[in-house]
Design a protein that fits this description.
The chain is 29% helix and 22% strand. It is α/β, with parallel strands linked by helices. A hairpin with a 6-residue loop joins strand 2 and strand 3. Bound molecules: D-xylitol-5-phosphate and zinc ion. Zinc ion binds next to strand 2.
């Protein structure tokens, strides 16, 4: 089990320090959510922020594009450490073309599915992707509860292509991680669980939470 920290819940005024802390405590990768206010009812990060993050990171970065028209941004996301670019199945564009564009740009290609989207709706794209991101919540906001039925999708995805990497994004905490582990999820994306803490010993608290998620490795 690989742990990816969603920077959406990190301290926005101290992103560089947050990245250094996450790297230091052993998070495997960073998850950067880009939202355009159209595809989802929220706005988060931006193309230039990914460039700055890539220059400040020693660990891989996964870019989760929650935007209506991702095609125009693919070439702008090619940076050192940007390992995977993920688009949504629910967009209206030419998904196959965009996935090929991501691969041509030299990064891994991922496809994300909202809780109400069935696995059969991505079957046609499975040979083109390296990564499938199951949304455990409706995209747009951190701090929501996992829709546990979304975990059934892991086996369905693996039955179509056994060697594809499967991640779950949204609603992951120490309890839901146990459920995800049972389903053999490869990557847990965790945001508010890791970062929300009111103690004065923030780093140790985050470290302990990471340890709890990592025990399923
Ligand atoms: C939500 C984002 C997630 C979010 C997860 O649309 O894609 O990456 O940060 O947050 P938590 O872990 O708090 O559900
Ligand atoms: Zn995300």
């Amino acid at each position: 089990m690989h742990i990816s920290a969603s920077l959406l819940s990190a301290d926005p005024l101290n992103i560089a320090a947050e990245i250094a802390m996450l790297t230091d405590i052993g998070v495997d990768s960073l998850h950067v959510d880009i939202m355009d206010g159209h595809f989802v009812p929220n706005i988060a990060f931006g193309i230039d922020t990914v460039k700055c993050i890539s220059e400040n990171s020693l660990i891989p970065i996964n870019v989760h594009l929650m935007v209506a028209n991702p095609s125009q941004f693919i070439d702008m996301l090619v940076h050192r450490n940007v390992e995977c670019v993920i688009i949504h199945r629910e967009i209206c564009g030419e998904i196959e073309e965009i996935l090929k564009k991501i691969k041509t740009s030299g990064t891994k290609a991922g496809i994300a599915i909202n809780p109400e989207t069935e696995v059969c709706e991505i079957e046609a794209y499975m040979k083109l992707v390296d990564f499938v991101l199951i949304m455990g919540v409706s995209p747009g906001f951190s701090g929501q509860q996992l829709v546990t039925q979304t975990l059934n999708k892991v086996a369905k995805i693996k039955s179509i292509r056994n060697n594809v990497i499967v991640g779950i994004d949204g609603g992951i905490n120490d309890k839901t991680a146990i459920l995800a582990n049972k389903e053999k999820v490869d990557i847990l994306v965790a945001g508010s669980y890791l970062f929300d803490c009111a103690t004065c010993n923030r780093v140790d608290t985050i470290k302990e939470k990471l340890r709890k998620l990592c025990q399923y490795r």
